Amino acid sequence: MSKADRARTEYMLRSGQSSLDLVLEDAMRLQKSLPGRDRAKLDEYFESFRAVEKRMERQLETINDPVPEPDYKLPSYDPITPNLQIEAEEIMYDLMALALETDSTRVISLFLHGLGQVFSFDGKPLGSGYHGLSHHGNNPAMIRDLIAIETAHIHCFAGFLKQLQEKKNPEGKSLLDDTIILVGTGMGDASRHSNRNLPTLVAGGDFKHGSHVAFDAGKSDAPLLGDLFITLAQRLGVEVDSFSNASRNLNQVFG
Amino acid sequence: MNVASIGNRRFIGRRIRLPIESTVIALSTILSGLLVGEEIPDAVQGALSSSCWDCHDSDTAKGDIVLDHATIDWTNQNDIGLWLQAIEAVEQGLMPPPDKPPLSEEAREALVAYLDKKLLEHIPIGGTLPRRLNQGEYENTIRKLLQLPDFELPPGFPKDTEYHGFDNVGEGLVLSPPHLEAYANVARDIADEIFPPTKPAPVKKTWNAGPEDMVLSFSASGVHGDALRLASGSIDIMRSCTWPSRIEISDSGTYRISIDSSKFLSAEGRPFEEAMILEVYARAVTASERSSVRNFRLLKEIEVTDEESKTTTFDADLYEGETVLFRWKNAEMNHDKPGEAFELIAKEDPRFLAAWINVIFPNGDPKKPTNTAVLRGRNGWNLVSEQLADPELDLTHASPDSELARAFFNVTAKGKTSIADCLCYYYHTRGPALEIHNLTIEGPSKTVESPTDRKRKERQLRITGSIQDGQSREDFVRNMLVKFLPRAFRKSVSDETIESYLAIATRHWDQGHTYEEGMHLLFRNILISPRFLYRCLDPGEMDDFDLATRLSYFLTQGPPDATLIDLAQRKRLSPTRPSQKDPSKLEYWVLRREAERLMPQTYTAPMIQSFVGQWLDTDSLDGIMPDPKFNFDQSSIDLAEYETKRFFAEILTRNLPMTDFIDPNFTFSSIGFVQRNYGFTPPGAQGKKLSAAANRKLQRLEIERGGRYGGLLGQSSILMATANGVDTQPVIRGVWMLENILGMPPPEPPKNVPALTPDTQGSTTPRELLSAHTADAACAGCHKHIDPIGFVFENYDPVGRWRTEWPGANAKIDASGVLPDGTEIKDATEFKAWLVDNIDLFSECIAEKLMIYATGRVPNYAEKIEIAEIVRSNRENEEGFRDLILALIESQTFRSR
């Protein structure tokens, strides 16, 4: 952010803050006139209003903090390569690592499309698109091609973890230990369109790693995916003890 | 600590679900010996005891449903929920279940009549929650209110949640802190377009960009040493042009532009005698990479005549947000017709021809070219280069008139951009190519007003008017708000509210800020007011403003226009008079007149795009990528979507009967599409050889009634939306048809049912696979309704083409089945005929969907009864679809909040 941009952002925050009382005054006048059910619906608005107000305060406090300026040059790449998704994915991971390094954000979600583009590896096109291959019906040739795609994705992901491991936060701690990374998919077995037994990967966050944990889903007290979410949220300092149908954490698994 | 989550979601099943009103049922009508509520009449108790209590008495309580009560408390929502569930189960034939004795005609009549009467008495029409404007509504509102016709929300704006199939229902339209923050940011950007922030005086600046600082736009260019080489003259910028990636003009003005350029020629490449023409354009930084150069302003044409780098300097106006873009105008190679360049080179260079023949025809068969789509750009060029490097390259077929060479020229003449991209690499390495070495931009030497600045000024004047002589700033803005706020808030506005908003500006001025800054702040705040962001905010019943708002967002997805606001202000929208058709009834004649005025006229109307896209799930087509084996590309998908929306628009605008949705004698498509995809040739085109243009032309096509194709249920878009691009699943199509065509949504499926493993190699047919459903009584209750309706569409593949065999199973498709009312059908045509005979089922279904979309709530029991009555009268009076919509708008359900 340039000096002028920073001054403008600060002005926008301060002027915005200074007028909130008048909008709120009118909004409360409106809410008072409404029947009960509608008033409850409008509570969403007031709660959001207060959250945004707090956020503005936090932004103002840190707006003049120094930001590291990374020395990154966009690699030249060829966006019409048949593996565009994979190449673009590497650049996305670079961008994510930079964003975390410069504290431009604390939360990132990345969605990897699983649709039709036909990839080529070593100059040879695969038999079908990602989505088509996922409906492999146990056909070995299709499974082989599917593995080639998923290996390429995981290879990109490994590069991301490596970057985080090498980068340090201002206290000298590796960014990987300072970040929780969760990778998952909505399909346990896409060929059957089954969403049970979802493969899930957790990295970073100073957890104990390096193992594959398998649960017996048939057991009545089998851990739920929600239990993992609770575990991660608690590690981030969020005080929650339930999420959807889950109400435990998995601290015992992470040792 | 940070969170990074990475999802990889392949196509996850379709959105399915509209549970039978799921209600928590708490029972206790007997309190300390006192009877609460109303006693159930004996005849009704008789029916309940003989047919329901076996499973649903207090002891058995199957499914947690208990029906043995002495009384019903009709003021209690739980009681109402319980008995609603009961009447629906009986009316849909789900209860009593098939393995229990049925209700006698007499008992059924007594039970249904009693519950119907009581439910109607105790369920009032109405109940919409405040509705936040959804994305589409918000965009249209800003476009009209603030005269920003091209306004779009930024790509990262939070998505709306769908509720009961639509993204404009109050319950689903939650507001969260990220939403409000996003609204505040958008409000700032909008205010910038009306009251642009004053900028500091421009400071002169020099930008410099070498080859490494230019965008490598697709395969258009390559960096070689100190030069970036251009090869193609295509008008698509991503295929031919380059531009500096980090230069963006911030002050509109006159700039001095210097470019170092040269010709690149080599001994291996072809000659280029004439001057190379380098075009320099002004390009908006935000313009898409898929733009054509024709969208940009040409600044200069430079003649490049030397192989030595030369500097050309000129002055040009550049506006805020622009950069420059380069294109080699007279390149030998052009993506629009790459065949010419291929032929030129191949005729001179046998090795080039031999290498390409080997790559395109790996089996040496001229009839079997490889799939050129995967040879794109660098990947294909690597394969050709390997061949070129081979000292033993076979030159047997390398003469331009060999069979393989002619086949190769046929492939290149078709103008596949993928192999044209490969050819760019040839020119990059051997020339001729146009080289750019350096770019310098210096300035501004003087400032100029950009067209955008001028537009902003005009816009501001149109929205606020201009201050009169002698008028105070405060009075001027107060007058402006008196006119503007009722339009912005779609409501009459009190003096108190006007003063609150006025104070935002005056207080800011008092703190020493400029007029524009005060107005900027005022508009930012108007746009985050709940009065602007929500509709249906009202202390009591709907007034004329609310009615105008509901009508306008329903039919145009946008805010009420000046005419409607004027009618609302004068309370002239809701007057009634005795109906001309039936003087015993009242008609809302002004409302009807306005509805007729606002009714969508074309298939591109936002209402048709939004409603049809959601009701028939054609919105989901973007996320379904058909397997390559179907040869159904993006243009086919677009045609399929066009067909359905254009078809809907035809029935609406021509007021055609409801049965035309199911079994019409027309469709809208191209002859090529219906031949290729539906395998039928329209009567007018039979026996004729049509030109490519005639094959592609979109038009109304006549079809015969009663056939396989035609009507919603035979259209590719819907058959595709109900499959997943790879295979079909009868259960998914069955559930979809029940929900969206027949209006009989089945209950939620039980949990803990394992997914089926499709057998793509063995011999099990889908019918054998699903036979488990009918074998198990627990499944049969719902699946006897779902599966037959799914199987009847098995003759349509995942893109809607007719097929007679199950893929992989080596068996003829058996599409026959028995419908809920016992009718036996053998295929889709018989299903369509049955639906035409029972058209009210479909009409009620679409009418309810329209009502959800219009009112933002799911019709309750009483409202469904009103809708059914409207549908019946529509059919009896031989009216059309447009009449149906008009009648729905005049209904009490539509007019109630």
List the helices and strands and how they pair.
The complex is a heterodimer of chains A (255) and B (897).
Chain A: H1 3-32, H2 36-62, H3 84-101, E1 107-111, E2 120-121, E3 124-125, H4 130-134, H5 140-166, E4 179-185, E5 200-204, H6 225-235, H7 251-254
Antiparallel strand pairs in A: 2-3, 4-5
Chain B: E1 2-8, E2 30-31, E3 34-35, E4 38-39, H1 42-51, H2 53-56, E5 71-72, H3 77-91, H4 105-122, E6 131-132, H5 135-145, H6 177-194, E7 205-209, E8 221-224, E9 227-230, H7 237-240, E10 253-264, E11 276-284, E12 297-304, E13 310-318, E14 322-328, H8 339-348, H9 350-360, H10 377-389, H11 403-413, H12 417-430, E15 433-447, H13 451-464, H14 473-489, H15 495-510, H16 515-526, H17 530-533, E16 534-535, H18 544-556, H19 562-569, E17 577-578, E18 586-587, H20 589-598, H21 606-615, H22 634-653, E19 666-670, H23 671-678, H24 692-696, E20 698-702, H25 716-721, H26 730-740, H27 766-775, H28 777-791, E21 805-806, E22 811-812, E23 817-818, E24 824-825, H29 828-837, H30 839-855, H31 861-876, H32 881-890, H33 892-895
Antiparallel strand pairs in B: 2-3, 4-5, 6-16, 7-15, 8-9, 9-15, 10-13, 10-15, 11-12, 11-14, 17-18, 19-20, 21-22, 23-24
Helix pairs in contact in B: 1-4, 3-4, 6-16, 8-9, 8-11, 9-10, 10-12, 14-15, 15-16, 18-19, 21-22, 26-28, 27-28, 30-31, 31-32
